[in-house]
Amino acid sequence: MKPDKESARGLAQVEGYLLWNAEVEEARRQARSFTDALPWLTTAQREDVERVFTADRIEVCRETLTRIAGRAVELRGEYTARYERLRARCVALSVLAIGTVGGTCAALTSISR
Q1: Contact criterion met (CB below 8 Å) for 61 and 91
Q2: Does residue 101 belong to any structural domain of this protein?
Q3: N or C end of the chain: smaller count of CB under 10 Å?
């Protein structure tokens, strides 16, 4: 693997790690906010509710990210296929245009002699 690709891959991994940690921290913050609205909970109950809330939120985020990543792979495949078809059409039209111009020039040259 080229150094630039390795660097880009490493940066993407670090970015993913930081984004995931931010998401986990946000889930914890929301769990605390939720339990703050329930002042009658004991400390143990509060910790249990926060733990379950956080775990649930993290699971939902994981499922969402997995679904988004799968869709991104699908879209990449679709757009790659479209690009390949478009490129093939452009090449075919270019060859046709060059052939037509070349044939016209050859015909004009032979007529003018």
Answers
A1: no
A2: no
A3: C
99 part of a folded domain: no
Closest CA to 54 of 70, 84, 34, 79: 34
Whether the Cβ atoms of residue 49 and residue 31 lie closer than 8 Å to each other: yes
Instruction: Tell me, yes or no, whether 91 lies in a domain.
Output: no
38 φ, ψ to 5°? -120, 75
Domain limits for position 39:
3-84
What is the per-residue pLDDT for 48?
97
Is residue 81 predicted with pLDDT exceeding 90? yes
The CA–CA distances, whole Å, from 34 to 46, 59, 64, 88, 91 equal 9, 18, 22, 57, 60
Residues present in the chain in total: 113
The amino acid occupying position 30 is Q
Number of domains in the chain: 1
Q: Is the pLDDT of residue 86 over 80?
A: yes
